[in-house]
Write a structure and sequence with these properties.
The complex is a heterodimer of chains A (251) and B (268). Chain A has one domain. Chain A has 251 residues and is an all-alpha fold. The model of chain A has no long low-confidence stretch (mean pLDDT 93). In chain A, helix 1 crosses helix 8, helix 2 runs parallel beside helix 6 and helix 4 packs antiparallel against helix 6. Chain B has one domain: Rossmann fold. With 268 residues, chain B is of the alpha/beta class. In chain B, helix 3 runs parallel beside helix 5. Chain B has nine helices and nine strands. The N terminus of chain B is likely disordered. In chain B, the strands form two sheets. A six-stranded mixed sheet of chain B has the order 5-6-7-3-8-9, with helices on both faces. Chain B has a three-stranded antiparallel sheet with strand order 2-1-4. Classes of the chains: A mainly alpha (251), B alpha/beta (268). At the A-B interface, helix 4 and helix 5 of A face helix 2, strand 5 and helix 3 of B.
Chain lengths: 251, 268
């Protein structure tokens, strides 16, 4: 137990230092634009299909579950509001962050951990190229750039998923016009901002966790695998616990 | 090889640096890897550190490069702490890792060009010249656009040496530069290390258990055994050093009558 607490504090501390050092080298940002773009492409464009598929079904299943109950009490005209609000404020950002942890976080940890294990990070240090600037900052900047867009895509596709279910499932039977009118009626710009703030924080935390866990790897190939697992698990815990905290603060 | 090393430009404003190790100790947990190491490497010297596997040679090299912090004692490169970022800004220090430590996501060319590019040392065409010269010295022109995963162990090692040359370092550290190389390439690398200081002002520290390399090219040889420095002498003195452990290490004999391995009968 003592060891777990010690390691947790150690990890948090090194993550804070890592972020601090990465952003201390922000003045060199114009020089790393190429790497930022590359990372943004890898993180966002290649994640689009999975974000699309998952968000569609999240929206669809949400509409289906809620729709049947709401149809019972003849509230199905409000279903657009329910799906829209849930996707925007909650499920969109969380789902995209979870996908990010699974796709980008794991890949980042694996890459940085193997660079650490095979002494590439040591080589960077002897060449006086700080890994924080060369490896971490481009990834952090990239995620901050693409995360709002990726979440927006997820949110909108979730809405569409709900609309499709409402239109085609007999029990619910709400037309897209009514669905989107009710969605539009109660959804405010603040809801959207809250959702995007959330996803921005999630994205930053996931990538920082991934970089930190990767760079803290010591040992051999087995530890690379262990680090990837740890990175994804920590990310998921952080996403869901931060979700509560942020919701509480923003509400 | 000797005819091509002159391609490396002499950087006149750079001076070779001294390395001083005082009372250095390193422990990992309960294991004492290095105890009370004292060394003074002069500017421009070729200094070899020899010793059996597991004697702490590579750990010592990492301490000199500032990659690990010592448990006790100090390492000074030209009077400065090598782990301090300011020292790294001021001095060009290259470490040739035993396994190469090439950047696997970059081609050979990009591996070599990374240091001058990141530090904006010179315009791009000049960087290209520097990279091509270093590749030529190590006869690696054919590998230019390959990725490290496509190279053999020996080629990786040569690329690592080339990457260090591009840095035009004031201090160059080699970790087993000739292991994994065939005898001819090992001799070539030895010659390269020996002639390097005629072209760039550099202090060289070579960690090796290649006896030929150490005794032929080094100005002084340190013998490290079980984490302790046993002797620091010139190669000539080393041959006549009255220390049976050192002589056994330098002149191992294969004795089929009294094999060192015991208990082989468990296999019969």
């Amino acid at each position: 137990m003592k060891r777990i607490i010690h390691e947790t504090c150690d990890g948090i501390g090194s993550a804070v230092i890592l972020a601090w050092r990465a952003f201390a080298s922000l003045p060199t940002a114009p020089r790393i634009i190429k790497r930022v773009v590359e990372q943004a492409y890898l993180g966002s464009y290649t994640s689009l299909p999975i974000v699309g598929i998952l968000s569609f079904f999240i929206g669809a299943v949400l509409a289906l579950q809620a729709g049947i109950t709401m149809a019972d009490i003849s509230m199905q005209n409000m279903i657009g509001t329910l799906v829209g609000e849930s996707m925007t404020r909650e499920l969109g950002p969380v789902m995209v962050a979870i996908i990010l942890a699974g796709r980008v976080g794991s890949a980042t940890t694996a890459e940085l951990a193997s660079m650490r294990v095979y002494q590439e990070v040591d080589a960077l240090e002897t060449m006086n190229i700080p890994p924080e600037r060369f490896l971490v900052l481009p990834r952090l900047l990239a995620v901050l750039v693409f995360m709002p867009f990726l979440s927006m895509v997820g949110i909108v596709i979730g809405w569409i998923g709900g609309a499709v279910v409402c239109n085609y499932v007999q029990i619910i039977n709400v037309s897209p016009e009514i669905y989107f009118r009710s969605l539009h009626q109660y959804l405010s710009a603040t809801d959207l901002t809250h959702g995007l703030i959330k996803s921005e924080i999630f994205g930053f935390v996931v990538v920082l966790t991934a970089c930190n866990t990767g760079l803290r790897t010591r040992g051999g190939p087995r530890e690379i695998g262990a680090s990837v697992t740890r990175s994804v698990v920590i990310s998921l815990i952080l996403i869901l616990s931060l979700d509560y905290v942020i919701t509480k603060i923003l509400a | 090889m000797k005819t091509t090393t002159h391609h490396i430009a002499r950087s006149s404003d750079r001076q070779p640096v001294s390395v001083e190790v005082k009372g250095l100790a390193k422990t990992f947990g309960l294991q004492h890897v290095l105890t009370d190491i004292n060394l003074a490497v002069k500017p421009g010297e070729i200094f070899a550190i020899m010793g059996p596997s597991g004697s702490g040679k590579s750990v010592l090299l990492r301490q000199i490069a500032g990659l690990d912090l010592p448990t006790a004692g100090t390492v000074l490169v030209d009077g400065h702490d090598p782990a301090d970022p300011d020292t790294r800004d001021r001095y060009a220090l290259a470490l040739v890792f035993q396994a190469g430590a090439l950047f696997n996501s970059l081609t050979v060319y990009d591996n070599l060009a990374l240091y001058p590019l990141e530090h904006r040392l010179c315009p791009k065409p000049e960087i290209r010249d520097r990279v091509m010269r270093a590749l030529k010295v190590l006869s690696l022109e054919a590998a230019l656009h390959k990725f490290p995963s496509e190279l053999s162990g020996g080629m990786k090692k040569r690329v690592a040496v080339a990457r260090a040359l591009v840095m035009e370092p004031q201090l160059i550290l080699f970790d087993e530069p000739t292991s994994e190389l065939d005898p001819v390439m090992a001799a070539t690398i030895s010659e390269l290390i020996a002639t390097l200081r005629q072209h760039i002002s550099v202090t060289t520290i070579v960690v090796t258990h290649d006896r030929d390399l150490a005794l032929t090219i080094a100005d002084r040889v340190a013998i490290l055994m079980r984490g302790k420095l046993v002797s620091v002498t010139t190669p000539a003195e080393l041959r006549t050093l009255p220390n049976s452990d050192v002589q056994d290490f330098l002149n191992p004999k294969i004795d089929l009558q009294n094999p060192r391995f015991k208990h082989l009968e468990v296999f019969s």
